[in-house]
Design brief:
By secondary structure, this protein is mainly alpha-helical. It is 49% helix and 11% strand. The two termini are 25 Å apart. The structure holds zinc ion.
């Protein structure tokens, strides 16, 4: 995958956020953070594989199920299958090269 297009938004509530085909970042310098960029690139791939809009639907549904299960925002967020895949592989440079289609299903 090519380098993503970055958009800096100072009011962004998170360090970074993937919004296909862009990666929104809170500070311009964050584009040099390999971990953040790999993490968001995994989300871009997930979004592409789910044809963009369904990704956001499943992401939010997964969050709501988790908030009922765990009654804790941080845990609910971390347990979203898309986040689990991204956090577990954000340090692996070649992850996207070898990643099977819909690999996020492994984290269900
Ligand atoms: Zn994420």
């Amino acid at each position: 995958m090519r380098k993503p297009w970055f958009i800096t938004l100072k009011f962004l509530p998170y360090s970074g956020m993937a919004l296909f085909p862009f990666v929104l970042i809170k500070h311009a310098d964050f584009k040099w953070s390999k971990t953040l960029v790999y993490h968001e690139r995994i989300h871009l791939m997930q979004q592409l594989e789910l044809l963009i809009l369904p990704f956001y639907f499943f992401y939010v549904m997964n969050y709501f199920v988790n908030i009922i299960r765990f009654r804790n925002h941080d845990r609910a967020y971390r347990e979203i299958i898309f986040e689990k895949e991204a956090y577990q592989n954000e340090l692996e440079i070649n992850y996207l090269r070898n990643r099977p289609f819909w690999a996020f299903l492994r984290y269900l």
